[in-house]
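U., I forgot to send this yesterday:
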Amino acid sequence: MKINGSVPEGGINESKYVEINGTKQWISIYGENKKNPVLLYLHGGPGSSTSAFDYAFTRKWADVYTVVTWDQRNCGKSYDSSQNKIQLTYDLMMSDGVEMTKYLLKYLEKDKITLLGHSWGTYLGANLAMKLQSCVKKATCGGDFFSTSQTALDIDRDICWGHFCRWLNHIKTLFTLKKCCDHKAFCKQKRKGYI
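Result:
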């Protein structure tokens, strides 16, 4: 199945289910040149897929990226009523995100991926970027996800993602501090919630 009827020469245009952590999850992959870097779009929610209209805005990047849109666990085309009793926790969504990233890197023969998150996808993307530093080239967000009740989303951090860009600027500093054994400065940044 394809997003539209055309596949550019040297490009890609596929839509399919992939097996992620025991569930079938829907992805669409398209781009003008398979040699371009990969962009994984992470929709909001959790549980509210945007696949019905993703192509309308993500196709604009298909000339410089191989764009992947993903219906996360149990929403959109990934919905499966047998999954209804499974709680969508932070850990489960992170596990799916890690496995999807690994799948895409292998399938598309890439070493790095760019993440673009919207709303909930900014939270997921930021955490994936921290967890998978060696294979995430960039993480960008829009419609940032602001902190919500921890019991509502079963998340283990209460960070305001409106400060996401400022937070990303600290990442390099934090790793430098940790490597240089500046324990006092590292702990100060940790108290501020940047780690």
